[in-house]
Hints:
This protein is α+β, with helices and mostly antiparallel strands. It has one domain (33-116): Translation initiation factor 3 (IF-3), C-terminal domain (Translation Initiation Factor IF3). 40% of the residues lie in helices and 26% in strands. It has a four-stranded mixed β-sheet with strand order 1-2-4-3, with helices on one face. Strand 1, helix 2 and strand 2 (64-70) form a beta-alpha-beta unit. The radius of gyration is 23 Å and the shape is elongated. 11% of the residues are buried.
Amino acid sequence: MERPPVCRIMDYGKYKYHLKKKQKDRGARAQVVMKEVRLRPKTDDHDRQIKIHRARQFLESGNKVQFTMLFRGRERAHANIGFEVFKSIVDGFGDDVKLERPPKMEGRRMTMVVSPAKH
């Protein structure tokens, strides 16, 4: 309640920039990132194991992983292959993951989302 009022002359653009930066830092901590691993029905076992190993690294760092299997042409008629591959992937992870979204066919692609299990 001083006379004359006490104030600070400052750059409003710089002030807004710092507020935005603080807001961004606050929201970045609790954010869960979705990573994607793409497969095909004809992907070889060894190549699939490499992709599963990479997905395991994503899960260990706390990210969700979306597995996407792309079907082309006549492969679409054999969706059962995709379901079997996804089942083997989930069985391979065991209790380390939680199946967040089961395998589902959406047009030419089949997707499944897993997240790290909370121990």
